[in-house]
Amino acid sequence: MLSILRSLVQEVNSARDLKEAMEIIVSRVQKAMTTEVCSVYLLDPATNRYILMATEGLYKDSVGKVSLAYSEGLVGLVGAREEPINLEDAPSHPRYRYFPETGEERFRSFLGVPIIHHRRVLGVLVVQQRESSRCFDEGEEAFLVTVSAQLAGVIAHSEATGAISGLSLTGEETKDISFSGVPGAPGVAIGTGMVVYPSADLDVVPEKPTENIEQELELFRSAVQAVREDIERVANRLASQLRPEEQALFDVYLRMLDDEALPGEVAIRIREGVWAQGALKQVVQQYIRHFEMMDDHYLQERVVDIRDLGRRLLSHMQEGEQKHQEYPERTVLVSEELTPAMLGEVPKGQLVGLVSVKGSSNSHVAILARAMGVPTVMGLVDIPVNQLDGRELVVDGFEGQIFASPSADLRAFYQAICEEEDELFRGLEVLRDKPCETTDGHRVALLVNTGLMTDVVRSLSHGAEGIGLYRTEVPFMIKDRFPSEQEQREYYREQLEAFAPNPVTMRTLDIGGDKSLTYFPIEEENPFLGWRGIRVTLDHPEIFLVQVRAMLKASEGLNNLQIMLPMISNISEVEESLHLIYRVYHEVREEGYDIHMPKVGVMVEVPAAVYQIRELAERVDFLSVGSNDLTQYLLAVDRNNPRVAQLYHSYHPAVLQALVRIAQDARSVGKPVGICGELAGDPGGALLLMAMGYDSLSMNAASLPKVKSVIRSIDREWAIQLLEDVLLLDSPHVIKSCVDLALRNAGFGRYLRPGKSSSAAMAEQAVS
């Protein structure tokens, strides 16, 4: 059964569209279970009805015509209960619903299982049998449940592909198709999708039409001829070294390149209006499906040859493409995995948004996007990347959502947000040089998180009072080797000089988790609970010592350096780190550098550190909470995983209680405590943190003017009362709503980020 299931998933994965995917499912499942009927009913989001999408055994004419209300019939019952229903005599069940057009009156045994993806019921998979004596056994039920679970994601992807194409399950036009991921960089962008992809990878070739059919045919013919010559050249060179049967393998390749074989089918697709690369992809995937289903082992092995041939042809076509890529005036760059190099290809002033299937809010691209002020969404699930090329897209970097083919109403809604944001920042420029102080005189330092020199420029223009977190891993990530001491020293000096005499807090190298170096790979089953942060650098003191030495030398004459240790979970880690720092300090002084011993602090981002604040504070000069990681570890939620993103919430009562405790314990021993993370850059979160007693808030530069404006407009007692009120609540969503309401009542409604509820309501209104 496992081999059948694996083959089925592969076939459905390579289906061209939802219709073909459904037909493959019913055909293969019917054959595997030796049953008379297999059908798929999908739930149409637009009508909330189950539609018969494919069948093997019922009348084909009923496909697309038969539909049931959400809770109607046995299909509706399976969906409503979200569990399998197995009946020997289905017609006798009180929920049985008969459709004459299907011809199902002949069949009595019924087994239906729900198709569920991310808690959403997508449809119901049904098998039926004529004999009432046959009851589908437990093994068959388990197999169908397994099939359903395996195919749920594939069906969701195929469904999304159809929706992106502009059609619902019923064939009606759709707009405002939304996909959710994780926020990469804040802001809203409206532009045209531009899909970029690595070369010679058939799987990521986007679907695009062509208007110049002859040009595409010529491009493909040239590729076929070039590949043919390559193969013949290799065959001739190796002829004396190979036996006849081995030499014959080259003949297989050449026969596949005959006009009546693969090239002929690709040419047909091109003449139908598909661009050459897309046509090649379709035909190769079709060949692969057919060969994988064959019983002959030799023919199954030919899949490798077909895939290789497809890559060779694609590579030649991509070489023949025009080198200069035309980018839309307002480009939203879309890719399976964006790289910094891809961003650099877009002409200056044309890049407005980024969308990446893979990646996280901590990836190098996300950091770069925030520095550039480009709204970004990362980590999208079930998004048909290949369908987004040339489509109008809305990128909501606040909530981690994108909308494809937006309606006029939805576009106007987000356009208004863009204009409001621009107007708001222009109005806040006057606050740049004013202190962040409440109306009753309570002072809070506003700092920035940086990683690149472009961050510094934006930070200074927004009135930052220093750097609360400089991510030293960024210079490591942009190299193909560890940067030398001199190279690091130059990077650090830039940051220190830019903000002198204000403090610059440099976090020692924090790799591991979702931050990796290509030249120093860390392969772990659970990287977030593994070898990361201080654990790596203490195991490799040669890395730690060079970095600290570069920091100290860079601070000469400025003396505004502060060093911060990440991922601390044990007192011994602090003591060992301090020993190494003091050792380097004395060595650098002996070399003749006139430097002061910098303040050293620790990051509180592991739950264990929350309960050791007093012990940690005895050994260091300051504490800084990494609220993003602390929230992640307290809630056991990977914040970069869109599958559980809804469980990650900075306003969770447990998170707020932990933050209160940290601030109280730090104050009790007289040590300053700051915080760097998304919560600090949220106006409501900043108010709560100020009320808790945090001395400094560090955030992205873009968030700074809003936070300063809010804090300067209220008194601390008001914020303390708000904190006391929300600490009595037990739901993160209720807490967030309470804080937002308080801000609106205080006149700061325009500072709140656009909520999902608002955009969802707009989308619903536009469709209705």
UniProtKB/TrEMBL annotation:
Its cofactor is Mg(2+). It is an enzyme of class 2 (transferase). One of its GO terms (molecular function) is kinase activity. It catalyses: L-histidyl-[protein] + phosphoenolpyruvate = N(pros)-phospho-L-histidyl-[protein] + pyruvate. Keywords: Cytoplasm, Kinase, Magnesium, Metal-binding, Phosphotransferase system, Pyruvate, Sugar transport, Transferase, Transport. Residues 17-165 form the GAF domain. Its EC number is 2.7.3.9. The keyword Signal does not apply. InterPro entries: GAF, GAF-like_dom_sf, PEP-util_enz_mobile_dom, PEP-utilizing_PTS_enzyme, PEP_util_C, PEP_util_CS, Phosphohistidine_dom_sf, PTS_EI-like. It comes from the Bacteria. GO terms for cellular component: cytoplasm. GO terms for biological process: phosphoenolpyruvate-dependent sugar phosphotransferase system. It is found in: Cytoplasm. It holds the Pfam family PEP-utilisers_N. The keyword Transferase applies. PANTHER family: PHOSPHOENOLPYRUVATE-DEPENDENT PHOSPHOTRANSFERASE SYSTEM, PHOSPHOENOLPYRUVATE-PROTEIN PHOSPHOTRANSFERASE. NCBIfam families: PRK11061.1, PTS_I_fam. Belongs to the PEP-utilizing enzyme family. This is phosphoenolpyruvate--protein phosphotransferase. It comes from Marinobacter halophilus.
